[in-house]
Amino acid sequence: MEGCRGLCLVLLPIALAILGPIMLVTSYTIAVLHGDVAKLFPYISDTGGDAPESCIFGQFLNMISLIMFVGVMLRYKQVDSMVITLGLHRLNGLTLFLGCLCALGGSLVANFQDTHVMVVHYLGALLLFGFGIVYCFAHTYISYKINRLHLNERWACHLRLALTTLAAFSFVSCLVGSHFAEAGWNKHHVHKSYYYWGPEDGGYTAHLVSTFSEWVMSVALMGFFVTYIPDFLHIDLVLELRFFQRV
Question: Where does the CWH43-like N-terminal domain start and stop, copy by copy (predicted)?
């Protein structure tokens, strides 16, 4: 019977904390140097819309999505072993479903660029951010319930609530800003593509609100999964392999 102790499992959220910023900074830097996007707060997806930055963006986001999926599964099993007396089995099962959709959304965003397959890309973004935020709210509630039994850290509950609230407000401001930015762009724009949205184009301020909100939302969601570090320190993952011979 092989096992992976807590110190090994915390490498998952730690890896997420490392890969996330590397992905954001690298794809943004290459996109700006290649002249593919505006310098001031482009949409994250726009920094991964064209090669070569799209290759780096896609590879990193695929790895991050896989880490999120494994983290969702581990957190589900961890909570499932705690909630015998708290009546949270259904909610915990729902978070497993939401978390898997969130990870799937990240993979869709990584593999279907908005420059080529916009519908699938936006569907992935909805799964990643929309369902991801609902997942975070649900697990924040679960964290507070579990804290009554002193099974997790109180500060982690507060931090998760703060990150989830920040992500939710950013999600709303991103959508609202995008709506007004598009309306302003349609009325007047100098540049041919919104990838180079500038102050001389209509709806520029709303555009910056939307793009900045997306960056904040992304960092907040990744930060939420990083808060699993103290929880994963207290669990072991055991893999049991059994050999049988067909008769």
Answer: 10-234
pLDDT for the residue numbered 3: 52
Are the beta carbons of 191 and 197 closer than 8 angstroms?
yes
* HSE-CB of 155 using CA atoms within 13 angstroms: 3
Check whether 243 has a pLDDT greater than 80. no
Distance of CA 146 to the CA centre of its chain: 24
Which residue, among 115, 96, 111, 94, has the nearest Cα to 49 in the 3D structure? Answer: 115
Per-residue confidence band for 5, with pLDDT thresholds at 50, 70 and 90 = low
- The residues, ordered by sequence, that sit 6+ positions from 178 with a Cβ below 8 Å of its Cβ are 206, 207, 210
Name the maximum alpha-carbon separation found in the chain: 77
Peptide bond into 199 cis (omega under 30): no
Q: What is the DSSP string of 106-149?
A: HHHHHHS-TTT-HHHHHHHHIIIIIIHHHHHHHHHHHHHHHHTT
- Tell me: pLDDT of 88 over 60: yes
8 A C-beta contact, residue 38 and residue 197: yes
At 163, which helix (H) or strand (E)? helix 154-187
Asked if residue 1 has pLDDT above 50, the reply is no
For residue 242, pLDDT beyond 80: no
